[in-house]
Amino acid sequence: MSEAAPAPVIVSDDPASFAHGVLAERHPALVARVLDTVPYGPGERAALTALLDNHLKGVVEAPEPGARDAERWTEEWGLPEHLGRSWFAAPFLWAESYFYRRFLDALGYFGSGPWRGVDPFRPFKRAELDGPGTEEELAALDALAEQPREARAAALLHGSLWGNRADLGFRLSVESGHGTGAAAGGTGDARLVADDSEALWSLLPVGTLCLVADNAGRELVPDLLLLDHLLRHGEAERAVLHVKPHPYYVSDATTADVLDAIERLHRAPGEAGAAGRRLWSALAGGRLVLRAHPFSCAPLPYADMPEDLRREFAAADLTVLKGDLNYRRLVGDRLWPPTTPFARPTAYFPGSVAALRTLKSDVITGLDPHTETGLVETEGQRWRTSGAHALIQVRP
Ligand SMILES: O=P(O)(O)OC[C@@]1(O)O[C@H](CO)[C@@H](O)[C@@H]1O
């Protein structure tokens, strides 16, 4: 491949690939889990089962008639190109994203019936917030408060980074043995395959910081704690938190999830409760602003973002994107040579941009050659998808 040629887009048609495994194994596991957890009626169950059958063996079909976003999918998000073709022939990012859109259709999320607006993934998100893991993490904030400010900032950054392992989609394949995940691995710096944290801190303080959130629950809580820290200490005058306009990729955070997370903090004792109260006031007072742009659920890379979103990111002094899916969309869901400089596929992004991500899919850029060689020698290609490694990358 020449220097200038873009790397190949990832497609799910190779049965040996990670992408194929997501469609063929992770999605059936997800359907089973949701139907086990939520007492949807026979109609919704039949529709979801039919969708899964179509996804695995059939061809891409149009959304339910009258869908309010049908025009967008048709005119802007590439649906006509894939209609009538196997889901496995479409780009991985497109197929996966459309599956979540159709998932909500099957369960009446966009309909006019009683399941309208009911998040099928909410029980999983709530269980995380109410679980002992969250309780322990919140209690640890009291001891952290004794630390010097820089140590606190570093701990909160790493909390937000490693919180990214908390997506149910990823854990489904780890639990069912289909993934190569190491969900309980260590979290020390040795597991960072790229660490631009110095460059990240050097960009602060800023006026407006955009944080493009990923998962709810145990990822969103540390994201909010990081934002609270930055706002409180003047490292950002204002923060804009981008969430999804509807449930997506199982655990992705919506406005309702932000409210649940703040409520969880609010009712905690000590430092966590104080952070919850500050975040509540920041939202009420406009220093913390929520955005739920439709493009956040688009099946496309950020390089194709619409003009209004581009202007929004351009107006921020720094945009931080969380998680694996956002990384795939930021650099393009392509098989880049891992040593491709991070600055190259992100050159189009308006303004300074940073990525905080645990590695849970094949896409990777910005590795130095020694790091890549060392990873391949010890792990083959498993390091790309196991979730055991993470990165902090910055393009100022
Ligand atoms: O964006 P997140 O929550 O970090 O990860 C989402 C994820 O689980 O979904 C995709 C496969 O389903 C992978 O890109 C990734 O592992």
Automatic annotation (TrEMBL):
Q: Which cofactor does it need?
A: Mn(2+)
Ranges for domain Damage-control phosphatase ARMT1-like metal-binding: 23-368
- Is-annotated flag, keyword Phosphoprotein? no
Where are its TM segments located? none
| Entry keywords, A to Z | Hydrolase, Manganese, Metal-binding
* UniProt catalytic activity: beta-D-fructose 1-phosphate + H2O = D-fructose + phosphate; beta-D-fructose 6-phosphate = dihydroxyacetone + D-glyceraldehyde 3-phosphate
Q: Which family does it belong to?
A: Belongs to the damage-control phosphatase family. Sugar phosphate phosphatase III subfamily.
* Name this polypeptide is given: Damage-control phosphatase ARMT1 family protein
